[in-house]
Amino acid sequence: MLQLQRSWEQLLQTFGIEQVKAQATFTTLADAYSNPGRIYHTLDHIQEVLEWIDRLRTYATDLPAIQLAGWFHDSIYDPHATDNEERSALYAQSFLSSLAVPSETIQAASQMILSTKAHWTEESQRDCQILLDADLAILGAPAERYDTYTQAIRQEYGWVPETSYRVGRVQVLQNFLQRARIYWTAPLYAALEEQARENIRREIASLS
């Protein structure tokens, strides 16, 4: 938690926001990720996303905007809802506007958050690609870690009947397999693509 708070404070320093205000807003943002129903989409996930973004920082055009998008992309998360990304983008806009973050940065971050709905963007949107790859890095994790992730997702959707969950989950996974590539950036494609596809095929087999 302390490492995350320091990362948040350093990010806000980029925009000239004083530490006292940064500390207070961190508490608010951390609370958003601490709802009882969250098993995977917690601050641990945010920390992993931010770490992957940092590894890809040399590819970034607007690193602070990507980092803000990473912080807020799951700020609203309700497994029963279909508009989490839209609501997360609106929450980010309101939150960051109150801190007087430049409007162009807020707009860029919001657009990146919205792209996580379909996990798709344009070839020219390098910053967006970084966020999407960071968010999906878990797909290319070692098998044991991947299995822990899938169990956490199932818990978050514990209210969905088993048959319905299996059908929906397989559809989501098949959509990733049908893509020419899961990862946009060269480093993650080289490091994780093969493992991600292996993990996904294995999960589909277990669900079918």
UniProtKB/TrEMBL annotation:
Superkingdom of the source species: Bacteria
Protein name: N-methyl-D-aspartate receptor NMDAR2C subunit
